[in-house]
Amino acid sequence: MKQKLQFFPVTIFSMVMGMTGLSILIGKFYHLQWLPYILYPISIYVASALFLTFLLLYGLKWIYYPAEVKNDFHHRIRINFFSAISISLLLISIDYYSFMPLLAVPLWWIGMLLHSFLLLKTIRFWIEHNFELQHFNPAWFIPVVGVILIPICGVDIAPPFLSYFYFSIGFFFWIILFVLFLYRAVFHVQLPEKFIPTFFILIAPPAVGFVSYMRITTSFDNFSLFLLFIGYFFLILLAFMVKNFMKLRFFVSWWAFTFPLSAISIASVAAYQITHMPFFEIISWILFFVTVATIGIVAWQTIVNMRIERICVEEE
């Protein structure tokens, strides 16, 4: 058991992101009376329990194996996944915002402050260390996605300028990192197999950006459509690449499939709530079933690989 704890991966918090994204999506469907109420609190409690369990286990790893946690925090790839902890907090605060707002507000403040700290630490790490182009992968987008999440509840909790501040940072770094990603993907060697699922992270910034922008401006305008349709474009592009994903061996990184699908589904539901256009209703239902099926498959594979002890092992 102690050996498993020693190699407990910080990347496991991407599972919380996926499950919390699904819970928010179920909440959206419930509020539109498309799903029964009972599924909403169940999904919230499952996501919350996962987060608390993983936080406890990683906390124990920090106590018993501080050197391993330090190695994670100074690893060129794993450092980006520490932001998944603060993102999980922010997503849980969004989840509770219409369910238990008195709990959502302190969770948002903790998530916002923690994510701000982790974002600055991560960017400083990028600047202070020598990176080659092959070190870049879509996991670098994770801190950026978290920044764009902050305004979703922040517009009601904190002064408006704070939401504009974080949205501006997220949008700025999304553009820069996307240029780097495109250059790396086209003109350099292919990503290792375990990082191929992180391609789905490309969907998240424009999808989350759409929801965040709508919350800040309360305006369904050309720029909001630009963000939404960029998200759809990446979704269609990845659908065309489906053969590349079907043949992959299982890694914890498979959970990178889940949150971006939830994010673009939530964005589609939000678009329907504003426009009441049948197009967005149909897209919402299609993406809902795709998201649920994907999370079901990834969760099952996670359980199977836990049973054969392929998770919580030493990584390269």
What is the helix content? over 70%
**Proportion of beta-strand residues:** under 5%
Q: How confident is the prediction overall: mean pLDDT?
A: 92
Order of helices and strands: HHHHHHHHHHHHH
Shape: globular
Q: Low-confidence parts lasting 5 or more residues at pLDDT below 50? A: none
Task: Output the structural class.
Answer: mainly alpha
The CATH first-level class comes to Mainly Alpha
Figure out the total of helices: 13
The number of domains is 1
- CATH H level: which superfamily? Voltage-dependent anion channel
Largest sheet: none
Distance between the termini: 20 Å
The total count of strands amounts to: 0
Protein name: Tellurite resistance protein
Subcellular location: Membrane
Main location: membrane
Keywords: Membrane, Transmembrane, Transmembrane helix
Describe the overall structure:
The chain is mainly α and about 325 residues long. The chain has one domain (about 1-305): Glycosyltransferase (Alpha/alpha barrel). It is about 75% helix and about 0% strand. The chain is built from 13 helices and no strands. It has helices at about 1-5, 15-30, 40-65, 65-75, 85-95, 100-130, 140-155, 160-185, 205-215, 220-240, 240-245, 260-275, 280-305. α3 packs across α4, α3 (about 40-65) packs antiparallel against α5 and α6 packs antiparallel against α7. The longest helix is centred in the last third of the chain and has 30 residues, at about 280-305. The protein is globular and about 50 Å long. It starts with a helix and ends in a 9-residue tail after the last helix.
